[in-house]
Amino acid sequence: MAAPSRRTALRIAGAMAVAAVAAVVGANAWVAREARGRVFTDVASVPARSVAIVPGARVHGGKPFAHLEARLDAALALYRAGQVKAILVSGNDTAASPEVTAMRTWLRDHGVPERDIIADAGGSRTRETMNRAAGLYDVRDAIVCTQDVNAARSEYLAEQAGIDAVVVGVPSQLGESKRYAASEAVRTALAILESRVRQGPSALAGQRAQTALIAAR
Fold it and tell me: pTM (2 decimals)?
């Protein structure tokens, strides 16, 4: 059988590219629709939940960088208003990227008692953060604090982990960056795929630390 011509190969590649873009756009539209009514920009309007979840982000000089500090500000406001009882901070905690240590220190410095801070150093990605929150720490309902452009995906991943979640979408200019917006769109599509083919929080339930159970609070 003769090999396809260069023109045919280009047509096939073009069709595949169009299909991939359509799949990403469709996935994002579906996730956005599913998150409708569960994403808030005003902390005061968010319905109360047991826990605020703060996914990790960049730190600089051992302190939260602007986007991470904005997430922590939102969680602190929720805690002070009595809309949550505890704050779970989740991310990396390495010498190069001490996200969890930085978040924990920031919250303590702003008056949150140690007993109300849950520190998870295994949340390397948003999906892991949500699965570990549900599987290891028995979080069943939460307010996720993240940037507006990440809000729908974060809400989807929390729900997929079995968490009754709403989100504070902290206003940002990230969505104005075409590169960042495209990256977020791909991450959202991959979130759906991973949720279909990979194990969720049930795989972690056996490791659950009894002292971290939210139900015991």
Answer: 0.82
Instruction: Write the CATH number for 85.
Output: 3.40.50.620
Task: Note whether residue 118 is domain-resident.
Answer: yes
∠ CA 40-129-54 to the nearest 5 degrees? 45
Alpha carbons 11 and 14: distance in angstroms, whole number: 5
Find the domain containing 178 and state its range: 7-216
Is residue 29 a part of any domain in this protein?
Answer: yes
Q: Which two tokens stand for residue 16?
A: 């595949």
* 140-170 per-residue burial string, b: 16 or more CB within 10 A, e: under 16: bbbbbbbbbbbbbbbbbbbbbbbbebbbbbb
- Is there a domain that residue 1 lies in? no
Q: Are strands 59-60 and 63-64 parallel, antiparallel or unpaired?
A: antiparallel
Task: Kindly report, residue by residue over 90-124, the tens digit of the pLDDT.
Answer: 999 998 999 999 999 999 999 999 999 999 999 98
